[in-house]
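Summary for the steering committee. The consortium agreed at its last meeting that each partner would contribute one worked example illustrating the joint modelling workflow. Our contribution is presented below. We chose a case with several input lines so that the handling of multiple components could be demonstrated. No manual editing was applied between input and output; the record is shown as generated.
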Amino acid sequence: MVDEINRDSKSYKSGYVALVGKPNVGKSTILNGFIGQKIAAVSIKPQTTRKRQLGILTREDAQIVFVDTPGLHSGEFKLSEFINEEARYALMDSDLILYVGDVSQFPDEEDRKLAEEILQVAGQVRRLLVLNKMDLVETGLSEAHAKAYQELLSFEDSIRISAVTAAGREDLLTKIIEMLPEGPQYFPEDQITATYEREIAEDLIRAAALFHLRDEVPYSMFVRVNEYAKREEDILYVHATLFVERESQKGIVIGMGGSMIKMIGTSARKEIEEMSGEPVYLDLSVKVEKNWRNNPEFLRRYGLSHDE
Ligand SMILES: Nc1nc2c(ncn2[C@@H]2O[C@H](COP(=O)(O)OP(=O)(O)OP(=O)(O)O)[C@@H](O)[C@H]2O)c(=O)[nH]1
Ligand SMILES: [Mg+2]
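What follows is the complete predicted structure of the assembly.
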């Protein structure tokens, strides 16, 4: 009971914390690190995340609702509009913005565009610069990079971390809580995300495809889980359809004698087992849906559009 009294009192802090930054800087890895579980798909390639995703961290003194976003990018497809709007909405709705940069590199044109975008849509929101991947660079060398990031925008503070080694994570958490407003506990304390497991499975399958496939093919892919259910006592049965845009891509995804789809399936199955904590039987089908990235009807049907 002491708990609840504490949470209703003025001193409890809470808020929405948007993780924004270019594709591939490590936003989803940071989210998973805080939540202690892989709820967001991560991959070595950019544009892994396509939708906003919440990661909820509840403590005695605060509840932090992290919002992982897709990295803003320029793309000529209708799908890109959706992806960029997802990032924009997260910015507008946030109480604090974590601008994530890769400290092993100088900021570039994309970073400058993102900084402008932040000023335009969420100029009043407090912001903190998070320089990630510090494990990749000597402290002395990263100095010049850090300075260049600081010049992109005015930040209240900045911190260097490594999402893979967890260095700096606790300090970052302390800073976040300091910067959050007083507020209620929005979600029950045992809830870690608002995304269904089946949707996380979709992202994990696409991340496996991003890992195994080259070039444009995984970007032309959309994954839909059609069945996600316990069939036998201890086995989770997952059936997913992998939509691609052309016949030729279907051939590549299936591979010689089914070798590619088998590799994607094996990697994805392991990830889904880790996420769900259950043995998984994963069944994958591949379907062609011509030019789906530009097809408003397809995008609407599968929740990849903000149009009514
Ligand atoms: N060395 C190193 N690699 C990292 C670190 N953080 C993330 N990565 C790697 O960077 C790659 C991209 O990470 P993600 O978390 O998918 O990046 P993201 O910003 O969510 O990317 P999008 O969803 O495409 O916008 C993965 O291969 C991660 O393992 C870090 O601190 N150090
Ligand atoms: Mg991501």
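The chain has two domains: 2-179, 197-301. The chain has a mean pLDDT of 93.
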